[in-house]
Design goal:
Shape: globular
Structural class: alpha/beta
Helix content: 40-55%
Radius of gyration: 22 Å
CATH class of the largest domain: Alpha Beta
Number of strands: 8
Length: 357
């Protein structure tokens, strides 16, 4: 806590120092900005986001009227990312800061406190979503709670009628906080559910309309197109699950609870809600035994998460690796191939189609 407090004080001091030094630069730019507005050009809104889905949705809704920057770099992890002082300055000078919320971004609270009083709009995309609560059940010392003699216990612990019995996630919940101080009493990975993503996109649309009301028709039209595409993606996901032979998949970290709730799937997460929470040796052995008993022939790796522990399970089980994209952040290959939310989610559908055979 002392280290975090020192870091916050230091970043705050740097923030005010850089702002003071940049006043002259801002004043010098006022005349240039005025000339641009006189010419009739509409200046794009400066939007800052924390995860790729928010960046992608903001671009799709805002179009030419937004310039979107994602704070979390390519290949990084939003769970552990920490912004620089310059990042904070940039956000403070922007028009909107859009973050997921639900405890995903451990840096968000400090950043918001630092920029408090500035004119930047603060948008919590997941604020109106019914989150999965991972603290309903006490953590079990039995690892992923696959009790001896009950080969289907995992199904009971994942009651799919809207219940939040994600026992394998709760066992990694760290009594509310992980080593980085991030709360994981709630599952923050809401963007993986296309229907919940509609709610997130609507928060973005509303914020853009408030910032640039003269473009309400454009933003509303773009949102309607995005909503229709998300609904179509949901239908594709549902069709894949209905055709699958299995409903259980083994994955490197337990970030897919919203697929469980929406589509009736069961994830077996090798790590917990946060990918930094590695399993104990006992938990790891139970995961391996469960995978063998249930003939899980694939382990799903993720694009921005260490594969060391997952590789142990893969080798012990004799499974084949597959890849899921958690969409928190892109990797260089995604950037080069110009992937978007929908192309990555459709890749996930195809990976699951193979894993659930």
């Amino acid at each position: 806590m002392k280290k975090n407090g020192y870091r916050f004080v230091l970043l705050s001091a740097l923030f005010f120092l850089i702002v003071a030094c940049s006043n002259n630069e801002n004043e010098a730019g006022d005349q240039e900005q005025g000339e641009e507005e006189t010419d009739g050009a509409t200046e794009a809104l400066e939007i800052y986001t924390t995860i790729f889905p928010l960046e992608d949705f903001a671009n799709k809704i805002g179009g030419e009227y937004v310039h979107v920057t994602n704070l979390v770099p390519v290949g990084a992890d939003a769970h552990t990312f920490e912004p620089t002082a310059r990042d904070m300055i940039s956000v403070a000078e922007g028009d909107a800061f859009i973050y997921n919320g639900a405890g995903l971004e451990g840096f968000a609270a400090a950043l918001i406190d630092t920029i408090n009083g500035e004119t930047v709009a603060i948008v919590e995309a997941a604020k109106n979503i019914d989150l999965i609560d991972t603290s309903d059940t006490e953590p079990s010392e039995e690892g992923h709670a696959h009790e001896e003699g009950e080969s289907h216990a995992h199904e009971e612990e994942h009651a799919h009628e809207g219940e939040d019995a994600h026992a394998h996630e709760e066992e990694h919940a760290h009594e509310g906080e992980d080593a980085h101080g991030h709360s994981h009493d709630q599952d923050p990975h809401v963007w993986l559910d296309p229907i919940l993503s509609i709610s997130m996109a609507e928060e973005i649309k509303n914020a853009l309309i408030e910032l640039m009301p003269e473009q309400e028709e454009t933003f509303s039209s773009n949102f309607a197109e995005l909503k229709a595409e998300l609904e179509a993606l949901d239908a594709e996901f549902t069709a894949m699950v209905e055709q699958a032979e299995k409903d259980t998949f083994l994955v490197s970290h337990a970030g897919y609870g919203y697929w469980e709730r929406r589509y009736g799937l069961t994830q077996v997460g090798i790590s917990g809600i946060s990918p930094t929470s590695e399993p104990s040796q006992r938990e790891l052995q139970r995961i391996i035994e469960f995978a063998k008993e249930n003939n899980l022939q694939h382990v799903m790796f993720e694009q921005n998460i260490s594969t060391k522990v997952a590789e142990v399970v893969t080798n012990e089980v004799g499974a084949e690796p597959l890849y899921l994209h958690n969409l928190e952040a892109l990797v260089e290959e995604d950037v080069q191939q110009e992937e978007d939310y929908f192309s990555l989610m459709r890749q996930n559908i195809e990976s699951l189609r193979t894993a659930l055979q």
